[in-house]
Design goal:
The protein is an alpha/beta fold and about 500 residues long. The protein has a single domain, classed as Cytochrome p450. Helices cover about 60% and strands about 5% of the residues. It contains 21 helices and eight strands. Strands 1-2-3-8-5-4 form a six-stranded mixed beta sheet, sandwiched between helices. The protein has a two-stranded antiparallel ribbon with strand order 6-7. The protein starts with a helix and ends in a 31-residue tail after the last helix. This is Cytochrome P450.
Length: about 500
């Protein structure tokens, strides 16, 4: 008994000694890098434990970046998440970030891509995969064929969304971050894949469920320790396989069709794409489109619900389109009449809605963009970015900067009026649709989806904002800038 007790004490003592040694090393490293790890010729390294910094970066990314810029007083600072990451702000950094050809968009998101499926789960060389994906993005969403495809699909989009809205009823409450996302998801699936898949509401719901499985599986732990066989990792792999099987099933159906049409899947088949390539394209577009278009559509309705002046302006603009391009004596439902408005009018004759979209993007869409340096010679001022390092730029550096946008948290679409821009040396930078080497190829499609939702909601409903208890909201809540997938309101 004594021997066992002594052995237990010795084992515990050794264990405690080992832990103490580890803590001593960690504390020494912390002190060294906090006080002695920087010099004027190097990018500033922030203090703190690597694991704590990484956890904060994944869980509260916006707060982590802003607080460290404020504390350090530097426009650049570095930290580690398996590899070096350089966070940057300021004009020089912004211009380099968006225009430097040595910075890879695809490689930037390989390590830090959150809930987006990892393309390596379908085995192909990553650089080739990225090049093929970009090729098809440009082919389908930028070239003239997109107009013809969109013209064909618009009546179906209006019909599908109108049916969804019918299910809301004529009165009651909705949560836009559920109901509006359902609309956006179905529309984006239609634009990115084919009618058969988008019309199958059971498959749409399953795809949504698999998406949320992927998002929830992208925990800080699973991203920091990708080699660990965790439940989250297994769920992610299974969800990716299930999504692949679902998309591949519909691709096979389209391959056997008597004639191809202008759906995205059919265009990819006609170009000789195989099933894994089509899967990557469809899922990439769906996930990017649902996140961004969903966020903006929800927040536009919130902002208009709290601003009767701009809501009335938007309603007048939509009614003018209906009066100009449809039969006002028609007994057809409003969704059918809206669907006959020509594409040129949706794109060029909605300046009020364009300003509302732009202002909502400016306030709400302030995520952190990522790149990876694949070049030997990338500098910001006199600071060199190491080859292989990741770089991060938060859009709020411009969009929420009162130097460019006075009272940046105030919803004011008129700030983009041409008259207010007169006399300025240059327009303030706007990054909502990308810029430089990476403009958003799906901008026109995204704008169309947003305008369809706004037009139908404002034409069909009168609404006001209420809180969780159903009482009128006293003030509009602020966006949770740390919520990288839906930007829910702060509680």
């Amino acid at each position: 008994m004594r021997s066992e007790s002594h052995s237990h004490w010795l084992s515990s003592h050794v264990t405690l000694s080992g832990i103490s040694s580890i803590l001593l090393v960690l504390c020494t490293s912390y002190i060294y890098f906090s006080f002695f790890g920087n010099n004027a010729n190097k990018i500033h390294k922030i203090g703190g434990f690597s694991i704590v910094n990484a956890w904060s970066f994944f869980n509260k990314r916006y707060d982590f970046l802003r607080s460290n810029f404020d504390k350090s007083g530097h426009n650049l600072f570095s930290f580690k998440i398996l590899r070096a990451i350089v966070a940057m702000s300021g004009d020089d950094a912004r211009k380099m970030f968006f225009h430097e050809k040595g910075l890879s968009f695809a490689q930037g998101y390989r390590l830090l891509m959150g809930g987006t499926p990892r393309w390596k789960d379908i085995s192909e060389d990553e650089l080739i995969v990225a090049a093929v994906f970009n090729k098809y993005l440009l082919k389908i969403f930028v070239t003239p064929i997109v107009r013809e495809e969109t013209l064909i699909v618009v009546p179906t989009l209006f019909s599908d969304i109108n049916k969804r809205m019918d299910a809301w009823g004529v009165e009651g409450k909705i949560n836009p971050f559920k109901s509006i996302y359902d609309l956006v998801f179905q529309m984006t699936v239609h634009m990115a894949s084919c009618h058969e898949l988008a019309a199958d509401l059971g498959s749409i719901q399953k795809m949504k469920d698999l998406y949320w499985t992927l998002e929830k599986s992208a925990t800080p732990a699973s991203l920091l320790f990708p080699w660990f066989p965790s439940t989250a990792r297994r769920n992610s792999q299974q969800a990716t396989k299930d999504l692949y099987n679902m998309v591949s099933h519909h691709v096979d159906i389209r391959r056997k069709a008597a004639a191809l049409n202008l759906d995205a899947i059919d265009l990819l088949i006609a170009d000789g794409a195989d099933n894994p390539t089509i899967f990557r394209f469809v899922l990439g577009v769906i996930f990017a489109g649902v996140i961004n278009t969903g966020i903006i559509s929800c927040w536009i309705l919130l902002y208009l619900g709290s601003d009767s002046v701009w809501k009335d302006k938007a309603i007048v603009e939509i009614r003018n389109l209906i009066t100009t391009y449809t039969d006002t004596a028609s007994s057809q439902p409003i969704s059918r009449r809206l669907s006959t408005i020509p594409m040129s009018a949706w794109e060029d004759e909605m300046p009020v809605t364009e300003s509302i979209i732009r202002e909502t993007l400016r306030i709400v869409n302030n995520g952190t963009l990522l790149r990876r340096n694949l070049s030997d010679n990338v500098h910001v001022g006199d600071k060199a970015i190491d080859k292989g390092a990741f770089v991060a730029y938060n859009i709020g550096d411009v969009h929420l900067n009162e130097v460019f946008y006075p009272e940046p948290l105030t919803f004011d679409p008129s700030r983009f009026d041409a008259n207010r821009q007169e006399g300025k040396q240059e327009n303030p930078p706007f990054l909502g649709w990308g810029t430089g080497r990476h403009p958003c190829p799906g901008m026109k499609v995204a704008k169309l989806e947003i305008k369809i939702i706004v037009a139908l909601v404002l034409s069909r409903y009168e609404y006001k904002l209420v809180d969780a208890s159903g009482d009128p909201s006293k003030e509009l809540p602020k966006p949770n800038r740390n919520d990288i997938h839906q930007v829910h309101p702060t509680l």
